Amino acid sequence: MPSPPLKTGKQPSAPVAAAEPGPIELTINGETYRHSGAPDMPLLWYLRDVLRLTGSKFGCGVGQCGACTVHVDGKAQRSCLLPVSALAGQSITTIEGLASGEDLHAVQQAWVEEDVPQCGYCQAGQIMAAVDLLKRKAQPSDSDIAQLTNLCRCGTYPRIRKAVKRAAQLIAAARTAEAKP
Amino acid sequence: MSGLSRRQFIRVMLSASGALVVGVGPASAAFTPTVPMELLGEALTSLGAFVRIERNNRIVIGARGCEIGQGVITSLPMLVAEELDADWTRVRVEQLPYGYEIGPDGPTNRYGPQGAGGSTSITDGWKDLRQAGAVARWLLIEAAAQHWQLPHERISTEASHVVHPDGTRMPYAELVERAAAILPPAEPVPVKTPDQFRVIGKPARTVDARAIVTGQAQFGIDAYLGGALVAVMLRCPHLDGSVESVDDSDARKVAGVREVFALDGPVPGSSFDGNLAAGVVVLADNTWAALKGRNALKVTWKPGPWAEESTAKLEAQAAEAFKGEGVNVRTDGDMAAARKAAKRVLEARYQVPFLAHATMEPPAALIKIEPDRALFIGSLQNPSGASSVIANLTGLAREKIEIRMTRAGGGFGRRLENDYVAEAVMIAKKAGKPVKLLWTRDDDLRHDFYRPFGVHQMSATLDRKNQLTGFAHLCAATSLNYRIARKKERPPGQGCLEADDFPAGLLPNLDKRFFSLESGMPRGPWRAPLHTFHAFAVQSFIDEIAVETKQDAVALRLALLGEARELDYSGHGGPKFDTGRLAAVLSRCAEAIDWKRKRSDGRGVGIACHFTFGGYAAHAFEVSVDGRDLRIHRAICVADVGRVVNPLGVEAMMMGGTIDGISTALNLAITVKDGQVQQSSFGDYALGRMAQMPNEVEVIILPSELEPSGAGEMGIPSVAPALANAIYAATTVRVRKLPILPELNRLL
């Protein structure tokens, strides 16, 4: 099965060593891709260098900062530590795949309304982590929110707190609206 | 704008697509075919001026600043939109590239000042960007006056429309062709009076927030270019060390690795106008291959002249330095005589560590060099410096170097130095290929222009009535200006001791001296440069004086500040320091934290205030220490930055400055051992996480009719002393050494 055309940029020619196994099939934002480069390449670099999905950011490369957070089967994971070989058959969502077309996800909407970003670099990771938190805790307390460990050097934490709470309200309101006949 | 005529300053043209384009620059270029194509074309990716009014009446405003998280991509276009009377809700903002060009009078920047440093973007824009917007509006009114055959004065504007006296509205877009044919006025046109403001002073959200939250916003690190190889580098861990030998056989075996070579560092002692450190470069098809190649390198390093340097030795060096005379920074009266006459002399010594910038986006740079031109894309704070660096290393004329600016993932002063730009150019030249250079976090923490290390010896003399008679501030530090060529002419405080800082000019006797410490650590400006450590020493010591003399710490400061008046201030942000404005932020802050209320259950309140870069700020914290657990219950920041352009932006800067200040004061230090930086990750350089931070920061911006100052830096200096003072109030333990938490643990 051929991989779908790349959305942006051009795939660098990553030579395949003879001993390497066949291509790895990855599902990212609902599309299927086949990676035949280094199987130990972390998902972050596959997203950025190969697919040119640059919304997931490099901040430390060792899972400490969270700027690269994506969802793997719906759970927040730090993509800098995930070799693509471990991801075959799993469904990956990046910040680029969070909104439904033009409709922002409630967390993204809350981020805009609370004017959270300053430099903005860590915010994709913060949003992906917050989406995961809200799946586990629909109405998170302050101490639940404090479990978010993504780093922000600009100091947007107080607005992140407000935005997570606002997002929880937006999600709850949408559910209530859906429940009505 | 003295000396510049409007005709020289404002450019007007009609683009090929029928848009009116208004910008700044020499007039002679405006009506000649030499206008760059991007000004005339449809493409908006490289917008050529400040204002474009398109046929559908959408207004596009160019943002000239380096957006590093300080909000200039929103606030600077607001200045243009205000004077243009644009409908802000329909304005689209586009980032401008760097605007160097050769004008009729020589080199100039077609967009005016573009760098981000010293909190000057708003003060600069307040002058020229408002004028650019006002001229565009003047032209549109003039066009409407011709169309309606009415006097100019009878026509008004509102929300991207001209308004006829009878109420008829016409979109700006319908007047564009006529407006472009009108010569702009020779004299500056009047700008609005504050009562006419519709955009300035109103909260405006970040213009590109949607792009940020959907992952579409472009940062320097996100730039890719066909044919570019990814470069990473293993840099020498020894200060001013070099490469002795390299075994790259394993590195070259990594699939995707294309080239490996050594790169020299600067000559020890020479100015840092190129790269920062020697090392071995690995070029590969992708980042992962490059990183694997780097891991496979076996390099033997040759330590440089600083192999013995350590933080412990710097501390000893400072203690020794104080025995000397030092360099006079400011002397008032006779401090020696004041000491003799004093009933009591109080002394305290404070210590502050080196700090790294640790921008969330590490340094990265994309460069393509061709025989007659170059293209650079990267996150910058100092695009003019980047342009010079590229020109120097390539031999190309600066106007042949295209610099595309992106959002930057933080700046904090790191990107004022363009060593990573120089490094990318050197690598690209050697490789003969376009290069995308990436620094990893360990590179970033181990190779930086660090905030200086310093020890501050403070003394205060008191008379029989416990009144302060004299103040001495001796600072032994690694000068800020070490090996930075452009800073050689700085005054004797060497970027570490401000002559006119509080309480200078408020006491009869003052003794300020600087003692330079020898160190091989590169140093540079770190957000609010010297003020972060300066304020810690001064505002902690004032608190100690208050405790020792049983005075109220707020009342003591207010008494020292005295009547509201302007004092001379030679540092950046001068020429005047207004004691009344500092007293006002302090008083408001004390009121907000309920300063006079006695706390029970182990809680303590601390306060501090500081003047920096034309802005005034005070912080207060309410804390408790339970065992070794420090909790911040309340955090208050009061600021006076003159007139506020974007209240949301200023609030974010103050909130962010406060959080950054707490994170830094509590935990962060860069230390040296055996001539090597010891920290290399967010594990040992642990930026504060949400759980350690107060849930909120109560930000109070004092209303002001005065000219706006910037807001990027004043939110941080008074944080560390206010925290240390609060800890003292809660525990009677005085923290005199940063970072606070390890020192507090040692003292408890």
From TrEMBL, chain A:
InterPro entries documented for this protein: 2Fe-2S-bd, 2Fe-2S-bd_dom_sf, 2Fe-2S_ferredoxin-like_sf, 2Fe-2S_ferredoxin-type, 2Fe2S_fd_BS, Beta-grasp_dom_sf, Diverse_Oxidoreductases
Annotated keywords: 2Fe-2S, Iron, Iron-sulfur, Metal-binding, Oxidoreductase
Domain annotation 2Fe-2S ferredoxin-type: ranges: 22-98
Superkingdom classification of source: Bacteria
Keyword Metal-binding (UniProt): yes
Record Pfam families: Fer2, Fer2_2
Name of the molecule in the record: (2Fe-2S)-binding protein
Lineage: Bacteria, Pseudomonadati, Pseudomonadota, Gammaproteobacteria, Lysobacterales
Automatic annotation (TrEMBL), chain B:
PANTHER family given in the database record: ALDEHYDE DEHYDROGENASE
SUPFAM superfamilies found in the cross-reference section: Molybdenum cofactor-binding domain
Organism of origin: Tahibacter harae
Domain of life: Bacteria
Keyword terms of this UniProt record: Signal
Signal sequence, start to end: 1-29
Name of the protein this chain belongs to: Molybdopterin-dependent oxidoreductase
Gene3D superfamilies per record: Aldehyde oxidase/xanthine dehydrogenase, a/b hammerhead, Aldehyde oxidase/xanthine dehydrogenase, molybdopterin binding domain
Residue ranges of domain Aldehyde oxidase/xanthine dehydrogenase a/b hammerhead in the record: 214-305
